[in-house]
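Recall the central idea of this unit: under ordinary conditions, the amino acid sequence of a chain determines the structure it adopts. In this exercise we apply that idea directly, starting from the sequence alone.
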Amino acid sequence: MTEQREDQADAFFHALADRTRRDIMRRVLAGEHSVSALAAKYDMSFAAVQKHVAVLERAGLLTKRRSGREQLVSGDVAAVRSVASMLTELEQIWRGRIARIDELIAADLTLED
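Accordingly, the structure predicted from this sequence is:
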């Protein structure tokens, strides 16, 4: 993995480590929302929701655009797929290790017979 991709992975997982940000991602992947509409769903200040949105935007997981006085937020499906790809890569490494352990156990059992 390149240094740039490692930095991107750090940003993705830092952003997604927070429950509120994951919930915001679920909402904006389902459709575009204004930051005001998002803020109305949470028991926190508008400024706090803006900060969560900013973290997700810096990580590249969503995009914002202006429409009049509103800031509209959309999830970036390609970025989410990139996160999924990283997790799949890690899963494959672990599956390989587990398969190797299974082979060693099976070989041990064969020797005991």
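The mean pLDDT is 93.
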